[in-house]
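Fig. S4 source data, part A: sequence.
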Amino acid sequence: MLFQVVVVIILIFLIARYAMRPMLNVMKERQDHIDQQITTAEENRAEAEKRAAEQREALTEARREAKQIIERAKAQKEREAEEIISKAQEQADRMIQDATSEIETEKEKALSELRDEVGRLTVMLASKVMEKELDSKEQSRLVDSYLKQVGELQ
């Protein structure tokens, strides 16, 4: 029995020395490897969160810039529309002024022609009156005739 106890103690000593130590070293290495993977995963997660925050910030900035671009485009559109309307109004005013001027010129021309005709008819009437001495009936008829001729000219 003593022999068995000594053999068991020697066996335990040999197992502890040659089997347990390598097995404990493998388990320690495995634990270190798992700890390293957990640390790497945490670092990767932190980096991913950082990049996601950067992307959200970049997206917010892009939206803000797009909004500014749209606002500038709207303002430019309004300025251009006002400019086009202003130019059109100026052109319409100029056309009205030109037409008014042309109408006034034509009116003056017609009045001038009418004055010339009235003068000519007056001279003609005066020469007829001079040619003969008129009584009141003849004078009335001559004035009516003269007025009729002036009316036809207008």
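Fig. S4 source data, part B ends here. The helical segments are 2-131, 136-153.
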